[in-house]
């Protein structure tokens, strides 16, 4: 694994983790009735997902162009972080909406 590939993979891990953390913060804020903060944290989570997608798109583009993109445990870990982040953001949005209905 070369430094260029690690430079793409590490932000996937970082931004995927950031998205998940921000989504959890958003749920906690909604639970407390602070919907402004919940919306702010969901926005931060969504931005982190977009940043992570840039790196993923770069790797997919290289592979689509026939370049060798070796799969490593780091890449698997990065994809796991990204998928988990996306799932948390999607679920957090739904949970926040539920809290808005419950708390009226």
UniProtKB/TrEMBL annotation:
Its cofactor is Mg(2+). The modification Phosphohistidine is found at residue 77. InterPro entries: PTS_IIA_lac/cel, PTS_IIA_lac/cel_sf. GO terms for molecular function: metal ion binding; transferase activity. Gene3D superfamilies: Phosphotransferase system, lactose/cellobiose-type IIA subunit. It comes from the Bacteria. Mg(2+) binds at residue 80. Keywords: Magnesium, Metal-binding, Phosphotransferase system, Sugar transport, Transferase, Transport. PROSITE patterns: PTS_EIIA_TYPE_3. CDD domains: PTS_IIA_lac. Binds 1 Mg(2+) ion per trimer. The active site is at 77 (tele-phosphohistidine intermediate). It holds the Pfam family PTS_IIA. GO terms for biological process: phosphoenolpyruvate-dependent sugar phosphotransferase system. PANTHER family: PTS SYSTEM N,N'-DIACETYLCHITOBIOSE-SPECIFIC EIIA COMPONENT. This is PTS system, cellobiose-specific IIA component.
């Amino acid at each position: 694994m070369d430094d260029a590939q690690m430079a793409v993979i590490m932000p996937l891990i970082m931004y995927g983790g950031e998205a998940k953390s921000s989504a959890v913060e958003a749920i906690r804020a909604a639970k407390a009735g602070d919907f402004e903060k919940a919306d702010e944290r969901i926005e931060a989570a969504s931005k982190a997902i977009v940043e992570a997608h840039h790196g993923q798109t770069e790797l997919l583009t290289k592979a689509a162009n026939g370049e060798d993109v070796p799969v490593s445990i780091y890449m698997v870990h990065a994809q796991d972080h990204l998928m988990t982040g996306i799932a948390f953001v999607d679920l957090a949005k739904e949970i926040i909406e539920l809290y808005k209905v419950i708390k009226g």
